[in-house]
Amino acid sequence: MLVSRRLDDQRYDEIVAEAEGRLPWLCPVWTDHNAHDPGITILELMAWYKEMQQYQMDRLTPAIQQKLLELAGLRLRPAQPARCALEIPPEAPPRPALARLATLEEACFELAEPIPARRPCLERVLVARDGGRVDVSGLAADGTPFQPFAFGGTADTSLLLGFGQKPEETLRLWFQVHQPDGVQRNPPDRQARLPRTLCWEMEGAGPVEPLQDETWALSWSGYVTLPAPEAWQAGEDGLWWLRLRQTEGGCEEQVRLSGLSAGRYQALQQETRAASYFFTVNGQAGCRVQIASAQARKADLAVFLRDGMGWQQTGRYEAHAAAQGLELEVDAAGAALDGEDNLLVVCQDPDHPGEMVFDAKGRPGEQFQLRVEGQEVLTDRLTLLCMTLQQDGSVRPALWHWVEELSVCGPRDRVFTYDPRREIITFGDGLHGAVVMPGPGAVLVTGLVLSRCSGGNIPADSLLAFQEDGTRVEHSAAWGGREAETLAQGRARLLAELNRTRKCLSAEDYERCARQTPGLRLAGARALPGYDPDAPQQRHSAYVSVVVLPAGEGRRPQADRRFLDAVDRQLERCRSICVQARTIAAQYVPFSLTGRLTAAPGTSQELVRRALEEYFAPCQQRIGAPGCPGELAAALQKLPGIFRIEQLELRGMDQRSYRNAAGDLVIPPDGILALERVELELRRP
């Protein structure tokens, strides 16, 4: 174990006393050790300096702590704005990206994507089975859960979605998936297989593959983006029909939907005060570019062209408001034609004039203060355009970027730091980071986005309206907003990660590893060292069998081959060298139960049967557990109306179980007791 060493282990009086005690040995002729002696004064001064040096050496500054965390492989998480989904009705007008919304508490939200003028409208939702159709449009609209692939998800069961018009290029749908109770699904990785197989088909155009599926085959809520081929034509009732079938249901839960929408758009809790847009133009007069942003429509503009020497501001442009933002006509004569971006448009919020332009004095370590009104600056989007000394000796604008620490930067690096507590930007000193050249307006903020972070996590019933016209919109609860991770939080996260074992050494490690299989929902996993189901009577060294139980539906969910292969891949990554790991499905062992109970007149056999089924329900604890009449009697005794348990007897129905001398029904370690038959006699007192 590493023991931290204390460097600040002496105080001033101790240092002075130790030094004076050594004077007779170092200088015997020095006999006056009183305070009036000039030598003693110098000694006391050095003792004070030594104490201060020890104190500083024993301190770990925040910058050092952060570097130590990075050396351990952990980087502090940046601030993140909250996001929510807006439900836009078909009759709503189009809006460009970054169109602003606000709550009653003046929390600002911005559209993360434009709302187009032409967008598909979901007219009907049908469930087709056995040649018939059931209209579930009302269920999908009011949030009532329904199962589109009920009855085992056979090929003749499908979900039909009818749209009033065809989308232009892609069709994006929001699926609200009703999550089952119990264990949650693990996040997937790149190698994980989908829990079920879905087939998407546009009637008249054939099957299509999703361009993006955030739902993991309808395992949780999210967007599914599909291509809209030209061959997709209107069909029955003049609607464009999309058919969704489940060709393989897997062994986990059935899909439950509580909502469908083609009009959901994302909004972020942020306020964009400055944004930059780069373009590549042909270097001629009259070049037209479009900025799809509501923020650019009313912004103060600064336009820069890049020639062979660098960026240079120009005033030869005309701006016109457009439906989806701003249209710019620029005289780009003289721009560099090397295939790289040669046009930069900076859009600054006019409601904050003069707050994003600074005069520089050209001093090392120069600082400027941002007026962000206590909001969090998203530093990954903070950029500056500063007057910079070029290699040829000229001074031109250049882009500067934010870094966490200047000490790792070179003398020519165009970087700066930001202190969120003091809201101050700091430039380098010429050794660590370049120095900004002096002049009026030498520093221009080209990218600045603010957020309330966790303060933007508003509930779904908050009043949210567009600032442009006051139109209110329905929205989901905003989530995901968080402040930048602190050093204390980073240290705690590092300790938690160090405590997680990524290699399996014990049986508990194999069980934990199996339960963390990406993309699966596991109700239970039990590791059996040395057990081989093909030779259960023999014990095999360096062999581990892991019994798994999926979190499926029905009385007896059982893992299929797809499920077992996924756990096998997980164990293969985590098993120890020279240890063979194998995943096996839990086997159900049938048994019968007979009993005689004394119960109150109002107690029914159905109540006792439900209690028995709940007691023997498949779970982690039931894997390999024997049936103990004593424990079962204690559980039944807790039921209301049960006075006495006179007799309980468990009998196996095949050769995989037997009763021991205590009357317990013993089963294999990979088995689960399955109650098949119950014979109860209820006596009245």
Protein architecture, described:
- The chain has 685 residues and is of the alpha+beta class.
- 16% of the residues lie in helices and 35% in strands.
- The chain contains 10 helices and 39 strands.
- Strands 15, 17, 18, 21, 22, 23, 24, 25, 26, 27, 28 and 29 form a 12-stranded mixed beta sheet that branches.
- It is flat.
Q: What is the overall shape?
A: flat
The gyration radius over C-alpha positions equals 35 Å
- Span between N and C termini? 68 Å
- Overall SS class: alpha+beta
Roughly what fraction of the amino acids lie in strands? Answer: 35-45%
Mean pLDDT across residues: 90
Largest sheet: 12 strands, mixed
Q: What's the β-strand tally?
A: 39
Oligomer: single chain
Question: Please, how many helices?
Answer: 10
Proportion of residues in helical segments? 10-25%
Unreliable spans? none
